[in-house]
Fold this protein.
Amino acid sequence: MIDLRQLRQFVAVAEELSFRKAAQRLHMAQPPLTAAIRHMEEELGTVLLERSNRVERLTPSGQVLLEEARRTLRQAERAMQLTRRAAGGLVGSLSISFVASAAHGVLPAILRAFSDAHGEVDLVLREATTAEQLEALQDGQADIGLVVLPCAGAGDLEFVALREEALVAALPEGHLLAAQAEVELPDLAQEPWILFPRSAGPGLHDRIVSACRSAGFVPRVAQEAIQMETIAALVAGGVGVALVAPPLAAAGRAGVAFRPLAGKGTPVSYQLALAFARLTPLVDAFVANAKQCEARGALSFPR
């Protein structure tokens, strides 16, 4: 039987077309290498190399063996890498939940980088509100989540903040305030509001209401909607005004004017964070990957 060592020797000779250069590349003497190739030819019952005083070219049989040997060596290397990763707990599947706003730039960047480094890991993705994610993480239905801080009822979950942003005003196009470069939060006091229900994200909901109180009013909620995309759609339909995450503003929405907030009660900030109940090797690798993405600015979005 031909082993991996012999295949490496043949690949070196086939690529160099020189026993001398191949022997140097393999850090071995030339005579044993020549004998090894001759033994392979005898074992296979075919000539692999056309040679006179030097190697001229591969025979058709040699071309086939070169292609298959390269494939075999690559597979052998992959098998060793996967075995090492399995020993470290870096194979299998990772269940990831995320808030809708993370789908704009942040999540895709993290997933691309993680898949490049851990392509053998199956990723199971699910969009969910922060409140839904906390419950799933605590029940073991998800391994890691992209949530919005502050969180209420987090229990023993751990959090790793990735970035902090400030909510922006979403106004129907043609609204008088849309003509301004920025919107004073107190100027929204008399407007009908579109807001997600407190149960979907108590921490951020309370922060928004608290900011409005600081600006001298309590928001008059005309309509509730859970997802930011739905909220923006309702704004475009003229149902009311809202505060939304800046990635949504960066993506743009027909019929909606997005403006920075100013004045009393601002900024209305929040943090996008990773949340998890157990720091497994896969979760640890995902967190490390996300931190690297943030450090090199890959999680930024156009403004």
Observations:
- The chain has a mean pLDDT of 89.
- The longest strand covers residues 158-166.
- Residues 13 and 264 are 75 Å apart (CA to CA).
- The chain has ten helices and 14 strands.
